[in-house]
């Protein structure tokens, strides 16, 4: 197991190093090298997945001392593989592998082709570090490194201003969330003296963790997840991140990195208090609904998918927050497959349309892009939650969990499910069905090569089958009891509780109905009644304005954070040059002035006195010198006179 | 052997004096190289990092009890290594100095002797002499080889640090005279710290507080701490690139070293009394420094203010007093030493080509100078604390330690001392640092390239010489980020002991 785990990391790491050093000079600019790198990871991940799924699922642990921070135990780096890790490894390695393959076609001819693959490798490595970590610090390192790769890849085409801005926004927004992670880490270290998951959970269980700071730590972790997984109000960076190349969006901004927040919350579940879970569920449900509404009014194919991702991530948090731990992580997995599928599908469309992303210029592309269209349709049905497709099972599980614990959130979730099906159908109809709206684009559209269609087919297959209950991978590998003692134990649902028959009897029909209604309405409005769309929209105009403006979150941030921030920067700069440095210069000038003052004093008074003395002496001297004439008589009379005066004086006194 | 290392640069200096100007730079590089090698030999020759090795004590001015006393422990050694390493790369970076070559390189080596001397001196008198020796060459290096406003900057630097030195001297003299024994005055740092660790502050009461504040300000000017920092941006902006590298890489570390080695061990109680005030100025330095850096348009000034911001962690870690916090503070000095040297070289590379540093006038440099861009973004991300590089370890450890500096009376539930507020407040700096570096990165390297910067003749990618400077710095930064134990274990025996002294003092004060 250890060898496999290390190979998983070594593959992409070596790939990254070699590719960044020699990639440009290698044949085919080294794309094969990176495919091999991630291929190694994939093979090992599959091995681990199957051995744990079909065999023994006891966690594997290995750790090494890294460095000693203080007087206590050394911090460790290490590997922790349980069912959750095995699932995540498979998801990350598989999607990363497919995206590598897809990029061979998609990025073909790009001047920085080799760099793109180098960064994809680096991302895969960082993400796998994050997933394999056995402690929070180690996880945090992977967490930050995926942020870096995300920054680099969103801004891959930074010659243009938009990608550069989007990349910076993504990095800084997620970094705000990371403050939460840091606070959590500090609080954990202060309480446990370690970052190891095992030790943290042991400390929580034994009650050594101060309850106030335990809550703070839990909230901090969730804030970090909010940043990374683009939940309200830190979701603003994800739609902008669509400026990156589409394979990047599929890998980082749909399937893996943005799901890292969900993974984090899932991983740290044993230390989350019931209060924190309530917050998580509420934020998740709200985000799910809000993002679904915004997605309705987007015309950029990738923006729709981006908001859909935000919405689906909200779903996962709803699942985790309601205690349906298994459901949330199950949905993470299925979502990774069908959302990566749809992103790559949209990449295929964009590639075919010469980098046109506006759906209003597409239409009828199914005929031109049969593989893309068909697999995309599978994705749409899966996300809408149609029975027997993967999304159906995972979504159903989340809704069932919510129904038992937070009924009001269940209804919000159900509304979001209708919306999801509706806007996905809208997207599909506008892109693939109906008549072409831009004949020129339509005429030139063609399917990409095998490197682009193959990943779609693989993902399409998984989007169908990955939820089938009889496979049983999810119940075995994502078993809540594998977490051991959980702080919020009464609220964590086992698989059986999740699927209690009285709940399923209510939830399942509603969930199926929601999907079908949404799909049908979407088809009705945008497919059949496409001509009447403007008229239909009219009464909802005010809503559309709100959706199109994304509920003004960006403006809010600009006014509340960016502007005051820049103003503070200007203010501090001014203070520094005028106030602080002014004081220093003032002292300096004062020094010079007092120096001049003393120079004056020195010149006129001190030196003047000296000169005065000199002058007096001189005058006295010249008087005296006239007496020294050399004449004896003069001397004689002078001495007689002096003697006489002396005598007179003595007599007088 | 240690003395040989310290005075080796003077041999180089004499060689330069005696040979033609064209050999000056080679002799400088060679001397620095030899110094680094000797330094490494000395380091490997040390059996333990705890206690002083290569120790020498000879009578010097016996009338007042001054000795020539030198030695290194792990703390001194790690800073010596930083000094010789940064000096070597700076010497390579000095290759293209044209004006008065001999004078420049002689001053450079004199400066090196001063710096090495500070880190090995164990006698306060000797320490002070080395401390002052550095001032002179630095003054000339900025004042003669600097930019247009060099006179102002060099005089400001000189007077400011001199003023700090006077306070330091006052503190030192009072301390020494108050601790005279029957046999005379004691100048030995080792003995004085030993006394203090047993019986508390070397000078009690208000006078002791004055001594501590005097020493603190003396060192704070060098660090530089807010509000004593304004000489730094001017000095950096005017200094030639290699001198900026030394200034940021080594000279600023003197202040922190003085605090860790002298001020805190001598006066742990006074330090505890001043704790909140010092924590406050540290947090101000971190946040305010970052804001001011964000407001700059001059590339070099931005880096200078980022130094102010980062050095705030050093004082913050020291006052917080937990082993983690002090280790982090010390690690910040090392990490900042290499990263800021690299950053100033990055500025130097583009200044050599463009002859200006206005970030608003740059743009899109990444596309024509890809290697330069890779190295520059490496340095930027290292400085903003990306994991895998040294800055992350430093920041994270300091933060963790500061947060852990929190003691509650188990019986009454009263807070005895706590620096959690400082950790929280300083977190803002993390986001701001990310923001100003990414804004700068975007302004300088991304976006469309103005036509002036597209000519490969005037804007070639980094040369071999520049790579020789930047790549080793990057490699060490990475090494320090991946294997922090190598470096941290060197100074840990000292800092862990210091942490015990400091926390005891804080406990005593709170209780």
Description:
The complex is a heterodimer of chains A (653) and B (511). Chain A is mainly alpha-helical and 653 residues long. Helix content of chain A is 75%, strand content 2%. Chain A has helices at residues 2-22, 31-54, 83-106, 113-132, 136-154, 161-192, 197-206, 211-228, 237-240, 246-255, 260-267, 274-296, 301-321, 325-352, 365-368, 370-384, 390-405, 407-432, 439-444, 450-465, 473-477, 495-498, 501-528, 533-537, 541-548, 553-627, 632-652; strands at residues 60-67, 75-81. In chain A, helix 3 runs antiparallel to helix 4, helix 14 (325-352) packs antiparallel against helix 16 (370-384) and helix 17 (390-405) runs antiparallel to helix 18. The longest helix of chain A is centred in the last third of the chain and has 75 residues, at 553-627. Chain B is mainly α and 511 residues long. Chain B has helices at residues 2-18, 24-44, 74-93, 101-120, 124-145, 150-178, 189-199, 205-222, 231-238, 241-266, 268-294, 299-320, 323-354, 365-368, 370-383, 390-404, 420-445, 464-482, 484-510, and strands spanning 53-61, 66-72, 406-408, 415-418. In chain B, the strands form two sheets. A two-stranded antiparallel sheet of chain B has the order 1-2. A two-stranded antiparallel ribbon of chain B has the order 3-4. The mean pLDDT of chain B is 89. At the A-B interface, strand 1, helix 5, helix 6 and helix 26 of A face helix 6, helix 11, helix 13, helix 16 and helix 17 of B.
> Which series of helices and strands of chain A comes N to C?
HHEEHHHHHHHHHHHHHHHHHHHHHHHHH
Strand content of chain A: under 5%
Share of residues in helices of chain B: over 70%
Order of helices and strands of chain B: HHEEHHHHHHHHHHHHHHEEHHH
What Rg of chain A do the Cα atoms give?
A: 38 Å
Residue stretches of chain B low in confidence (pLDDT < 50, at least 5 long) are none
What kind of oligomer do you see?
heterodimer
Shape of chain A: elongated
Rg of chain B to the nearest angstrom? 22 Å
Return the average pLDDT of chain A rounded to an integer. Answer: 86
Main sheet characteristics of chain B: 2 strands, antiparallel
Strand proportion of chain B: under 5%
Q: Kindly report how far apart the N and C termini of chain B lie.
A: 47 Å
Which pair of chains has the greatest number of interface residues, and how are they split between the two chains?
A-B, 53 and 59 residues
- Reading side by side through the largest sheet of chain A, how are the strands ordered? 1-2
Structural class of chain B: mainly alpha
Largest sheet geometry of chain A = 2 strands, antiparallel
Shape descriptor of chain B reads: globular
Total strands of chain B: the figure is: 4
Mean pLDDT of chain B: 89
Strand order of the largest sheet of chain B: 1-2
């Amino acid at each position: 197991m250890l060898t496999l785990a290390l190979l998983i990391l070594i593959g992409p790491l070596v790939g990254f190093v070699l590719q960044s050093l020699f990639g440009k000079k290698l044949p085919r600019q080294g794309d094969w090298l990176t495919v091999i790198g991630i291929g190694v990871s994939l093979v090992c991940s599959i091995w681990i997945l199957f051995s744990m799924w079909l065999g023994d699922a006891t966690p594997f642990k290995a750790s090494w001392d890294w460095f000693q921070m203080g007087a206590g135990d050394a911090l460790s780096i290490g590997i922790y593989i349980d069912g959750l890790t095995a699932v995540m490894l498979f998801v990350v390695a598989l999607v990363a592998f497919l995206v590598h393959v897809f990029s061979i076609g998609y990025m073909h001819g790009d001047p920085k082709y080799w760099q793109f693959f180098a960064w994809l490798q680096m991302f895969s490595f960082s993400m796998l570090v994050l997933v394999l970590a056995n402690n929070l610090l180690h996880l945090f390192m992977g967490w930050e490194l995926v942020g870096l790769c995300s920054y680099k890849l969103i801004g891959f085409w930074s010659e243009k201003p938009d990608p550069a801005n989007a990349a910076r926004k993504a990095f800084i927004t997620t970094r705000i969330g990371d403050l939460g992670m840091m606070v959590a880490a500090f609080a954990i270290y202060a309480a446990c003296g370690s970052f190891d998951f095992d030790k943290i959970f042991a400390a929580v269980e034994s009650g050594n963790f101060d309850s106030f700071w335990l809550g703070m730590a839990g909230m901090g972790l969730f804030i970090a997840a909010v940043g990374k997984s683009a939940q309200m109000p830190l979701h603003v960076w994800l739609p902008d991140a669509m400026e990156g190349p589409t394979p990047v969006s599929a890998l980082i901004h749909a399937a893996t990195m943005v799901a890292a927040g969900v993974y984090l919350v899932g991983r740290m579940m044993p230390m989350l208090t019931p209060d924190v879970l309530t917050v998580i569920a509420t934020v998740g449900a709200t985000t799910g609904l809000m993002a679904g509404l915004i997605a309705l009014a987007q015309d950029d194919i990738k923006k729709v998918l981006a908001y859909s991702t935000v919405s689906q991530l909200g779903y996962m948090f709803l699942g985790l927050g309601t205690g349906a731990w298994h459901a949330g992580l199950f949905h993470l997995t299925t979502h990774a497959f069908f959302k990566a599928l749809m992103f790559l599908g949209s990449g295929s469309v964009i590639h075919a349309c010469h980098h046109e992303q506006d759906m209003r210029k597409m239409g009828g592309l199914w005929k031109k892009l049969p593989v893309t269209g068909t697999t995309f349709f599978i994705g749409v049905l899966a996300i809408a939650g149609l029975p027997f497709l993967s999304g159906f099972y995972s979504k159903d599980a989340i809704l069932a969990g919510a129904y038992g614990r937070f009924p009001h959130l269940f209804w919000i979730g159900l509304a979001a499910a209708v919306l999801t099906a509706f806007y996905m159908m809208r997207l599909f109809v506008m892109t693939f069905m109906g008549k072409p709206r831009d004949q020129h684009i339509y005429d030139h559209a063609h399917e990409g090569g095998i490197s682009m269609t193959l990943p779609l087919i693989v993902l399409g297959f998984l989007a169908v089958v990955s939820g089938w209950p009889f496979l049983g991978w999810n119940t075995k590998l994502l078993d809540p009891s594998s977490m051991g003692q959980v702080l919020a134990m009464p609220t964590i649902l086992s698989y059986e509780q999740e699927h209690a028959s009285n709940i399923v009897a209510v939830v399942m029909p509603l969930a199926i109905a929601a999907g079908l209604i949404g799909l049908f309405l979407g088809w009705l409005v945008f497919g059949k009644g496409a001509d009447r769309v403007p008229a239909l929209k009219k009464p909802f105009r005010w809503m559309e304005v709100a959706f199109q403006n994304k509920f003004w979150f960006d403006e809010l941030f600009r006014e509340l954070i960016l502007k005051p921030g820049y103003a503070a920067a200007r203010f501090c700069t001014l203070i520094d040059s005028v106030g602080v440095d002014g004081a220093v210069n003032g002292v300096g000038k004062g020094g010079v002035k007092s120096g001049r003052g003393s120079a004056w004093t020195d010149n006129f008074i001190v030196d003047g006195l000296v000169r005065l003395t000199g002058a007096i002496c001189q005058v006295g001297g010249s008087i005296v010198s006239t007496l020294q004439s050399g004449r004896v008589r003069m001397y004689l009379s002078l001495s007689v006179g002096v003697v006489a005066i002396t005598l007179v004086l003595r007599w007088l006194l | 052997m240690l003395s040989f290392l310290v005075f080796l640069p003077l041999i180089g200096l004499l060689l330069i004096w005696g040979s033609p100007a064209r050999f000056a730079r080679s002799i400088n590089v060679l001397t620095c190289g030899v110094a680094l090698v000797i330094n490494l030999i000395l380091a490997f020759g040390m059996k333990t990092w705890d206690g002083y090795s290569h120790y020498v004590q000879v009578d010097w001015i016996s009338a007042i009890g001054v000795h020539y006393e030198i030695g290194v422990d792990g703390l001194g050694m790690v800073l010596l290594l930083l000094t010789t390493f940064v000096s070597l790369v700076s010497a390579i970076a000095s290759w293209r100095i044209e004006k008065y070559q001999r004078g420049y390189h002689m001053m450079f080596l004199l400066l090196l002797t001063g710096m090495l001397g500070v880190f090995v001196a164990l006698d306060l008198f000797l320490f002070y002499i080395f401390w002052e020796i550095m001032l002179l060459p630095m003054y000339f290096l900025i004042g003669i080889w600097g930019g247009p406003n060099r006179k102002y900057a060099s005089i400001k630097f000189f007077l400011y640090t001199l003023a700090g030195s006077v306070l330091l001297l006052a503190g030192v003299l009072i301390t020494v005279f108050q601790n005279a024994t029957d046999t005379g005055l004691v100048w030995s740092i080792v003995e004085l710290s030993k006394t203090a660790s047993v019986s508390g502050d070397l000078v009690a009461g208000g006078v002791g507080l004055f001594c501590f504040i005097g020493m603190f300000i003396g060192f704070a000017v060098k660090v530089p701490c807010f509000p004593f920092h304004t000489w730094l941006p001017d000095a950096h902006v005017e200094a030639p690139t290699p001198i900026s590298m030394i200034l940021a890489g080594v000279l600023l570390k003197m202040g922190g070293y003085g605090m860790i080695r002298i001020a805190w061990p001598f006066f742990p109680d006074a330090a505890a009394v001043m704790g909140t005030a010092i924590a406050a100025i540290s947090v101000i330095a971190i946040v305010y420094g970052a804001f001011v850096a964000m407001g700059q348009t001059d590339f070099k000034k931005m880096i200078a203010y980022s130094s102010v911001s980062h050095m705030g962690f050093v004082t913050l870690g020291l006052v917080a007093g937990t082993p983690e916090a002090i280790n982090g503070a010390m690690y910040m000095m090392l990490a900042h030493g290499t990263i800021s040297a690299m950053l100033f070289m990055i500025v130097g590379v583009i200044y050599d080509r463009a002859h200006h540093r206005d970030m608003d006038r740059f743009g899109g440099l990444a596309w024509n100078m890809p290697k330069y861009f890779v190295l520059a973004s490496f340095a930027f991300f290292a400085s903003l604390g990306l994991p895998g590089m040294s800055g992350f370890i430093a920041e994270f450890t300091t933060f963790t330690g500061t947060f852990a500096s929190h003691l509650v009376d188990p019986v009454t539930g009263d807070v005895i001392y706590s620096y959690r507020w400082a950790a929280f407040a300083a977190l803002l700096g993390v986001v701001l640092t990310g923001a100003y570096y990414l804004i700068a990165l975007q302004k300088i390297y991304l976006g469309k390239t103005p036509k002036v910067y597209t000519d490969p003749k005037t804007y070639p990618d980094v040369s071999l010489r520049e790579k020789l400077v930047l790549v080793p710095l990057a490699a060490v930064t990475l090494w320090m980020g991946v294997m922090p134990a190598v470096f941290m274990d060197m100074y840990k025996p000292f800092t862990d002991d210091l942490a015990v002294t400091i926390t005891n003092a804080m406990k005593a004060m709170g209780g």
